[in-house]
Amino acid sequence: MNSKTKKLVGVGMFAAVVVVLQLLGGGIKFGMFSISLVLIPIVVGAAVYGWQAGAILGGVFGTAVLLSGDAASFMTIDPAGTIVVVLLKGVACGFFSGLVYKYLSRKNRVIAVFTSAVICPVVNTGVFLLGCYVFFMDTISEWAVGLGFDNAVTYMFIGLAGVNFLVELGVNLLLAPMIVRLIKLKLK
Fold this sequence. Notes:
2 strands; mainly alpha; Arp2/3 complex 21 kDa subunit ARPC3
């Protein structure tokens, strides 16, 4: 089997894992949204197959989020904005995770993995928050007032994204040593 075929099969397998984890992880919710357990296979796929694969896996993640109904509360407000934000945050987290890994792995693979594992949820959450600001700020302001928050920005960081981000970041950091081992296996 040539290298292109191996890469295609590998990315396809990671994509299947992303879909399954997104659908299974949909039941684990903190607040309005489920925890993104799919960030680990995105980081591993991006590290093993490159930033392009990371972007593809992130796109698969975004598509699975849209199809699973996890973005339904935003879809009723602005469907086009929801699609843009969900797909962009997925593609961006995989792309940047892979890019960071590519450049840092030249110096130190372990640091590259840990940094990529941090970058992935940071970008995912950052693009989500930026998208909330651009597309949904009026609704989020109403939600914030209804829930007793001082302002919409505080609600966005604490109520919408805070706990989810911390859990996703913690899971990535906890599993980063496993990512290092998987990459070493791939490189043998």
